[in-house]
Amino acid sequence: MGSLPPDSNPPRRPLHDAIPPLILGTATFNTQYVTNPYDLPAISIVSRALDLGVRAFDTSPYYGPSELILGDALAHSSVVTRHPRSSYFLVTKAGRIASDVFDYSPAWVRYSVLRSLERLHTNYLDLVYMHDVEFVSPAEVLAAVRELRRLRAEGIIRYVGISGYPVEKLCALAEMILLETGEPLDAVLSYGHYTIQNTALGTSAMARFENAGVDVVLNASMLNMGLLTTRGAATGPLASWHPSPEGLRKTCQDLVPIATEAGEKLEVVAIRWALDNWSRVGASKGGRTPKLPAGTRVGVSVMGISSVPELEETCRVFQSVIEGLEPETSDPEQTKRRQWSLDRRQKIQEVVEKMWAVLGQWKDYSWSSPDPGFVNARKPTEVGTTPNDGILTRHAAKNNVSVKVEELPVSVI
C-alpha cells in the first residue's frame, strides 16, 4: 500500500453538481455474491474504473469486507499516484449491522462513520446513507439523519441521504425529514425499483421526492440483485438469501429465451434498458457529466460488477447511452454514434415489451421489506454501545477532543 497524501475536502456545492451519473457499487465485494470476495481483482477493477472515467464508489459496512477491500484498492500505490482522493466521490452507509441487526442511535452512527473513514483510508466521506431505513422506526431514522448532519457540520461527511427498498417508505421518510427539520435530504437511493421487472421508482415517486426537496434520486441494482440474469437466483450464493418469491424467480428465467431469440443476453438487455431509461426518467433528480451541455442532468445509476470485463461492458453501454442524449450536430461521426444509440434504444425497448407480456402479474411486483413480523435483533442494552476497538479514541486524539463511550467487545459486531 502506498503512502496517502492529505485529503482535501472539496467545497460543498449542491449534490447534483458534485455526484457523477455512474457509480461503481461494491456490494459484490461480499460473500452474498461470490464465494471469496478477497479473490476478486479489486485493485484492477478500481484502477480500471478510474481510468475509464468512473469517479464514484458505493459501499457499506453491511457488505461484509467490502469497505476493507475497496479502501485497500483505493489506497494501493498504483491507484494513489494517478488518482488522488479529491478526484473521486466516495459513498458509504450506516445503521445496518447484519441481516436482522440495526442500530440507528447517534452514538452508533458516529462510530460507524468514523470506522468507515479508517477502512476507506480517508479523512472525509462524500455521501453517507442511513442503510435500509424501512427496518427501523421513523423516529430512529430522524435521529440518525440529525447525527449525520452533525458529522457534516464537523467536515467529516459532505452529503446526507437514506437508502432502502420500498419506494413508498422512502417517499414518506423524505417528506417527514423535510417537515421535521426544515431541510431536505441530499439523496435517496432506491434499489430494484427501476428495472425491466419493476419500474415503481419512475412513477409518482419522483413527484413526491421533488415535493420533499430531495436533490438526487439514485437507481441501484439494475439486475435486481442478480434476479435478472441468465443464471438467475435459483442457484449459487443468491439462492440462500435472495428475497424474491419462487414464482418471480421462475418467471424471470422465462425472460432468458426472449433475449436469446433477439440475439441478446438477459443481463445486457436489463442493464441497457435501465441505464438508458433512468438517464432520462431520473434526469430531474440526476447528476451532471461534462460530456453533455452545461446544465444537463442525467439520472444517476449504481452498477454492481465483480470483474474488469463486466466493468468495461457496462461503461461502454453507458457511454452509448450518453451519446444518445447528445444534441443533434453537424459532425458526421457524432451523428452516427448518436443514431446508433437511438436505434439500440428502440431495439431494446421492443425486446423488453415482449418480456413485460411474459412477466404478467409479476410486472412491478415488490416483495415485503422487512418480512412481516420482523424484529430487530439488536438488544436494547446494546443500542448505542460501540466496540472496544480504539476507533473513537483515535479520532478524539487526532482532533484533540474528549470522548466518553459505552463499549462492547469487538466480537459483538
UniProtKB/TrEMBL annotation:
Superkingdom of origin organism: Eukaryota
One Gene Ontology term of the molecular function aspect: D-arabinose 1-dehydrogenase [NAD(P)+] activity
Record InterPro entries: AKR (IPR020471), Ara2-like (IPR044480), NAD(P)_OxRdtase_dom_sf (IPR036812), NADP_OxRdtase_dom (IPR023210)
GO CC list: cytosol
Domain NADP-dependent oxidoreductase span(s) in chain numbering: 21-319
Pfam families in UniProt: Aldo_ket_red
Biological process terms in GO annotation: dehydro-D-arabinono-1,4-lactone biosynthetic process
SUPFAM superfamilies referenced in this protein's UniProt entry, alphabetically: NAD(P)-linked oxidoreductase
Keyword annotations of the record: Oxidoreductase
Protein name: NADP-dependent oxidoreductase domain-containing protein
Lineage: Eukaryota, Fungi, Dikarya, Ascomycota, Pezizomycotina
